[in-house]
Amino acid sequence: MNDVIIVGGGPAGASLGCYLSMYGIKSTILESSNHPRPQVGESMVTSSTRVFKEIGFLPVLERERFVHKYGASWHPPSGKEFAIEFAEFPQEGIDQDYTYHVDRSKLDLLMLKHAEHKGAKVYQGVHVKQVLFEDGKAVGVQAQFGEKTIDLHSTGDFSEAFLMPYEARLPGGVSIWYEFIRLYYKLLPLFTHFIQSKTHRLEVLRLLQGEVYDRKDVPVLDAMRNYIATVEKSDSHLLKSRLTSITID
After folding, report:
1. CATH superfamily, with its number, for domain 4-159
2. pTM score, two decimals?
3. Which of 25, 127, 146, 204 is most buried by a 10 A CB count?
4. Each residue of 18-57: pLDDT tens digit?
């Protein structure tokens, strides 16, 4: 019997397996692919460093000599470079001023092996067909192991009430992130304007790091929307031709 069954052995699933093992909770990770798998990316943001530190994965990143990333820069058509350094935005729980450029296929395999090393059971090439419910609770999964279909059960509490705090916080953060990215790509020169703003610079840095869970904390989103609206209404605006077809809502 498993305490927890984790569907998917990517970075999120592997990290969860690590955290559970650290607290003495048994877990089984079911991954449909066989690692290493082809995967696009990745240029990390510093907020991920907190997770890597907590699960003891930073030494692995250093051992594998992934490229250090100390900031980011943008190059608008004017030719002038605009840059940020992560050191100017200290974050709780993060002691280094850089993150990493990684090969995702390699990183994902390393993280999955790290979770296994910490105690999680890992099965690759296993396709989860459905989640099993009893009395409104997720109690296990039905998975395809080769030619056999097997029901696996867990003992954890996965009721709606248990998950509600995460339902409120995490989707809110994801929604804010996607709004920011849509505004970013709607009018690229707009970003270089706000990254220079004394009023909004730190808000933009927090958004870039995925560190925002309450939209009221980042009024820059409304400022970006208003700027885009101004450009859209004026046929003679210098940035009119730079608007893309991406929808922002």
Report:
1. FAD/NAD(P)-binding domain (3.50.50.60)
2. 0.80
3. 204
4. 999 999 999 999 999 999 988 888 899 888 999 999 999 9
